[in-house]
């Protein structure tokens, strides 16, 4: 063993591959970025808002603020392409954040809030106000594109239909 190698072992400078911190998943990285962005948004408010003062109205303001960076065309009711899934020409309707993006963002921020010391009872991302807002955005965007969102049927009714179809198959 060389003197340098022994010195490394004593000083603890040699690391085995298992000592390396794990690379965060794409979801964890995105969650951290979203959390930092929301924190910066609160700091930029006049006056700045601390996380302990944050409520669902701040979250709604943040979601509306993000709309300016959206890439989804949402036709207004007065637009001649309102309700058409694939309009034949461009129009001046605004670009917005897609409902699915907002829904995923809220899910990540909801988890990050609790991971950073917030309690589920005080989580502004989990409030009914946010759920109502997301539902309204979903419905509005669906109407603007002419795509109906249908409620999923309960599994109990589907199970009965499967039982009926299976009972008609008899072997002779």
Automatic annotation (TrEMBL):
Q: Which GO terms describe its cellular component?
A: nucleus
A Pfam family this chain is assigned to = ALOG_dom
Q: Give residue spans, biased composition: Basic and acidic residues.
A: 1-10
GO BP terms: mRNA transcription; response to light stimulus
| Location(s), subcellular | Nucleus
Query: Per its record, what are the GO molecular function terms?
Result: DNA binding
Which PROSITE patterns does the UniProt entry name for this protein? Answer: ALOG (PS51697)
In which residue ranges is the amino acid composition biased (Polar residues)?
13-27
PANTHER family in the record, alphabetically?
A: PROTEIN G1-LIKE2 (PTHR31165), PROTEIN LIGHT-DEPENDENT SHORT HYPOCOTYLS 10 (PTHR31165:SF10)
The family annotation for this protein states: Belongs to the plant homeotic and developmental regulators ALOG protein family.
Q: What is this protein called?
A: ALOG domain-containing protein
């Amino acid at each position: 063993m060389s003197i340098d190698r022994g010195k490394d072992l004593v000083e603890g400078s040699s690391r085995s591959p298992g000592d390396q911190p794990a690379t965060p998943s794409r979801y964890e990285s995105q969650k951290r970025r979203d959390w930092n962005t929301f924190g910066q948004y609160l700091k930029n408010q006049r006056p700045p808002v601390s996380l302990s003062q944050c409520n669902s109205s701040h979250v709604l303001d943040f979601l509306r603020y993000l709309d300016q960076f959206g890439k989804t065309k949402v036709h207004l009711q007065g637009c001649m392409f309102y309700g058409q899934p694939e309009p034949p020409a461009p129009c001046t309707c605004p670009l917005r954040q897609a409902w699915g993006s907002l829904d995923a963002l809220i899910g990540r921020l909801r988890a990050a809030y609790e991971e950073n010391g917030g309690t589920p009872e005080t989580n502004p991302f989990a409030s009914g106000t946010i759920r109502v807002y997301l539902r309204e955005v979903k419905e509005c965007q669906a109407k603007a594109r002419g795509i109906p969102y249908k409620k999923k049927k309960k599994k109990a009714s589907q199970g009965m239909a499967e039982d009926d179809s299976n009972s008609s198959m008899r072997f002779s």
